[in-house]
Amino acid sequence: MRRGEIFGLRWKDIDFERKRIYVEHSLYYIAGEVIVLQQIKTRVGKGTSPLQKKM
Prior knowledge:
By secondary structure, this protein is mainly beta.
């Protein structure tokens, strides 16, 4: 996952029962001061990641 996608995660994007993270949004910095949360624009950018146990 990219840094903006990690920072853009919300609690509803995490499914603890199925152990999945749904990547739907990304956090963008504009002009170094403004922070914007936006939906990922393409289906290629959207996806899921499995939650893994700590070792």
